[in-house]
Amino acid sequence: MAGLTVGFGEYTHAIVRGVPASLPKDALRMNEANDDVDLARARREHELYVGVLMHKLGLQIVELPVDDSLPDSVFVEDAALVCGDTALITRPGALGRRKETEMVKKALTDLHLNIVEMTDESATLDGGDVLFTGREFFVGLSKRTNQRGAEILADAFKDYAVSTVPIYDALHLKSFCSMAGPGLLVIGSSDGAQKALKVFERLKDHMLIPVPLTQMAKVDGSLSCCSILVNKRHEM
Ligand code: CIR
Fold first, then answer.
1. CA 195 to CA 82: how far, in whole Å?
2. Which residue from 36, 68, 80, 153 lies 20 to 30 Å from 119 (Cα-Cα)?
3. How far apart are CA 129 and CA 142, in angstroms?
4. Looking at domain 13-230, does it have CATH number 3.30.1490.20?
5. Residue 174 alpha carbon, nearest atom of ligand 1
6. Going residue by residue through the chain (236 aa), what tens digit of pLDDT does each one get?
7. Domain locations along the chain
8. Residues with Cβ within 6 A of ligand 1?
9. Which residues pair with 163 in a beta bridge?
10. What is the pTM of this model?
């Protein structure tokens, strides 16, 4: 098996975008009953999240302008996939989210990444369905991401193997799993979340920073979806 990519898990920049006023009413959600999103609280939580990225993790923040015409635009992760020097601009599965890629593409271009665009009209891919382990990619085939999207990702990142994972009960692959560090994958579910917690507890040398995201969770958002992390260290 190939070794871990050099610099895996190290980042210098985080791209984020503020919470639009339209999120509470118009953001997509699997559970329509979640109609009580508190905008002010969502914004406070997002500010806290950005503060952690900036002050605790020491990342340079690239903040995209808030756009009220794009209710889901705080979830920047879905618009691009960055690995090394390459940024794949996605073709989000939800039609109403396609325009979100424009500002994200501009920010990644300004960071001098090599931009690859998913232009094939039969392809869809949300960044939330892409898990990079440092050795390989897993791509969730969900309501938002299809096989053609996974093939285009494989083509953009030829150095890595790409496997697909069918997703049934969740929005995205990363709705229930994520990389917690090099070689450490956490997988949640009501039972599994407890197990994952125990894994975290054993990692005494890892810093745990609690960040609430109670309001964005109501519209299927989670922590990783609110930023795109970039490593430009090699240029410094
Ligand atoms: C959506 O349904 O597209 C948004 N309300 C939530 C997107 C969350 N994105 C992510 O986890 N990567």
1. 29
2. 68
3. 8
4. no
5. 11
6. 457 787 888 999 999 999 999 999 999 999 999 999 999 999 999 999 999 999 999 999 999 999 999 999 999 999 999 999 999 999 999 999 999 999 999 999 999 999 999 999 999 999 999 999 899 998 999 999 999 999 999 999 999 999 988 887 788 888 888 887 787 777 665 443 344 345 465 555 556 677 778 898 899 988 889 999 999 886 64
7. 13-230
8. 27-29, 72, 75, 77-78, 94, 97, 127-128, 171-172, 174, 219-222, 225
9. 138
10. 0.91
- Pick from 111, 105, 53, 115: nearest CA to 234: 111
Distance CA 186, CA 200 (A): 9
For the CA of 220, the nearest atom of ligand 1? 6
Contacts for 112-116: CB closer than 8 Å, 24+ residues apart: 112/232, 112/235, 113/82, 113/85, 113/86, 113/87, 113/230, 114/85, 114/86, 114/87, 115/87, 115/89, 116/86, 116/87, 116/88, 116/89, 116/156
Residue among 133, 157, 126 nearest 228 (CA): 126
- The HSE-up count of residue 216 (CA atoms within 13 Å, CB side) is 27
The SS3 of residue 63 is strand
The question of whether 172 is a catalytic residue gets the answer yes
Q: To test the ligand 1 pocket, which listed residue (220, 222, 224, 228) has its Cβ within 8 A of the most ligand atoms?
A: 220
For residue 235, how far is its CA from the centre of ligand 1 (angstroms)? 32
